[in-house]
Amino acid sequence: MKETRAQWGSKLGFILAAAGSAVGLGNIWKFPGKAFEGGGGAFLLMYLLIVPLVGMPAMLAELTVGRASQSNVVDAFGKLGHKRFAWVGWVGWLAAFIITGYYSHVGGWVLRYVAAYATESGSVYADPLAYFYRMLGYDAAAETTFFPWVALVFAAVFLIICAVVIIRGVEDGIEQFNKVGMPALFVILIILLVRSVTLPGAQEGVKYMLTLDLSKVNGQTFLIALSQAFYSLSLGMSIMVTYGSYLPKEENMPRNTLLVCVMDTLVAVVAGFVIVPSVFATLGAEGVGKGGGFAFVSLAGVFQQMAGGTIFGLMFYLLLLFAALTSTVSLIEGIVAFLIERFHWKRTPTTIGLCVVLFLMGCVYTCSQAAYPIHGIWFDFANGLSFPLFCDAMEFLTDRVLIPLSALGTCIFVGWAWTPKTAVEEITRCGVKFRLVRTFSFLIRFVVPAAVIVIFAVSLFTGTTLS
User: Fold this and answer.
1) Alpha carbon distance 157, 161 (integer Å)
2) 269-284 CB burial, b ≥16 within 10 A, e <16
3) Are 332 and 115 in contact (CB under 8 A)?
4) 3 lies in a domain?
5) Based on the structure, what is the number of domains in the chain?
6) pTM, rounded to two decimals
């Protein structure tokens, strides 16, 4: 028997859930480093211009497709009369499936660091790099590998938390979780911001983030800002179509889209003012980096040199944990929604079975991290990843191929097949006013597709990493 389609219980619940989906690890551990490399204030200015011109119309398009179809991402296009565009949904769904496999394990690593800062911060401080290696099954001193059971156990716990939220449903699970998680995330972020900017020497970092250093601005900087804005908003991964399908017809989607984008951007910008000044104050400007290695290793040195560093370190990893959980929950929901609606499966066994599969997929990702020093197969801690190794292959496929392809397909669908006129009719249901009809039509037809094509072409054909 087909399950009755869920709806958001309140506008606030949807906004917090959608913002929680958009606010992920990339906002916190990638954005600050990219902003630093891009000239601080100059990068911020470009980013703040790109979000409304590219991110907002793309998100509004996905939400509109979802609400109009009242369906999962795979079936949405067919229900709107364009079955030939079903491939767009399949690509987005596949991207979400693959990403969740390894993203959930990285979430487990974050959970491990929350536990570490709560119980054994001294072990982290003693040798941050060695501690990170040991979590992943590599003893740097002895140059030996072992089964990374610690990382796998915490990944399992992380997925269990996500499963519990998903099983409880849209209103009682996802919405209620985000009503707690997102305010907690913002409170922690503000506390960390106050601590960061009041550190001795942090003023130089604040000044850097507010200064237009045009000497570091070039085409590459623009491309990185463009890609960061695009990937940060959870576009092209089935999430916003799925979340949009739970929206009541009377909801004001343009206003909600604006609020979600503002919240996502605010988290990224504030994270930049948390991390860059604190690194300036403790490690110096040369210590600013980005990515998992920076978050798990370099920042331990920051907290070690900070008065009350253990407490603020714990808060930082709790911040990362909330970001990882809210994003992973949204990814899993997009996958589950399709399985429930297409095959009429029950939510609880579907979620449990899916999480088991995702955990096993992620085990390959986590276990591959420590194999290189002995076997020379998967991962080189000194030099990073090199395609076509398994870890890099998954990220290459999702970030450089599937996500841009799905987003581009959605833009073509809304801009040319379904047409902006039909989309606007859906947007303006129940008397909702939308004064930017012509602007939206132009952006979704020309500007957004052009931006996605640029990201797609540069990252795929030049080998440049933009995500």
Assistant:
1) 6
2) bbbbbbbbbbbbbbbe
3) no
4) no
5) 1
6) 0.93
466 found inside a domain: no
Q: How far apart are CA 129 and CA 12, in angstroms?
A: 41
Which domain covers residue 196, as residue numbers? Answer: 11-461
Question: Could you tell me the two tokens for 28?
Answer: 């916190």
CATH number at residue 327: 1.10.4160
Query: pLDDT tens-digit profile of 400-435?
Result: 899 999 999 999 999 999 999 999 999 999 999 999
The label of the residue with tokens 């503000």 reads 190
pLDDT at site 466: 63
Residue 5 lies inside a defined structural domain of this protein: no
What is the three-state SS of 169-208?
Answer: CHHHHHHHHHHHHHHHHHHHHHHHHHHHHCCCCHHHHHHH
CA distances from 66 to 78, 116, 166 (A): 12, 41, 19
Burial (CB count <10 Å: 0-12, 13-18, 19+), residue 212: middle
- Structural domain includes residue 150: yes
Residue 348: other Cβ atoms inside 10 A? 13
Predicted confidence at residue 4, as pLDDT, reads 63
